[in-house]
Amino acid sequence: MAEPKAFPNFFVQELADILADHGETLASLPDLIVIGPETLARLQTSLTASSTSSPVLAPEELAQLGTALPLLKDEMRRLQAALLALAIRRLVASQIGADYAQSITQTIYPELVTAFQKFDPTQVRGDAGANEDTTIDRSWNFIRESRDAALLALQLSMGFSNHQAHLQEARSYLAEALEELELLPKAVKAQALWKKWQHQLQIDRQTIEQQEQTVMGRRKQP
To answer: Which of 39, 114, 183, 221 has the lowest CB atom count within 10 Å?
Structure first.
């Protein structure tokens, strides 16, 4: 088995830079948030050229840091962009290898940071003041997008590695689509379109279950 390669941890690099802007360092994190010595050591080690791991702060730790410093909106979004970059690198690496994943992620990382600076979270699912028709349209869009994400994860599960993780992701997205479908008003549920989507999502769920059985069968093979 090939030895894992060392690649930069975008998140810890951004974190160290932001802490420095506030007159702090990684070593001073225990004074700011509740963090274990092992987690701190892994964060510090991941800044070295020889590190092969990419540890990050847990959501509650990042929230504590946001209050303790406090983090500016711009700083928080830089960290969010770094987290997304690590997630993209991990996903791409599982399909085409770590070298290509690093090259691709390194190229798009500046664009991710810029995009997060311009990001408006109110545009993702809309605001609470939307009328009923608009809300229903958004629900349908969410259902379609969740199914698309589930099918993409299902396709990735048929790749070279991380089969079970992708299948869990597919199941999660599909569950979100089914939940949103059930939350639609009764008048919508009476329509043929709703019944068609319910039937399709049930078929998708069966497909995911069949792929899970296939993966488990492979694991049992000698």
So the answer is: 221
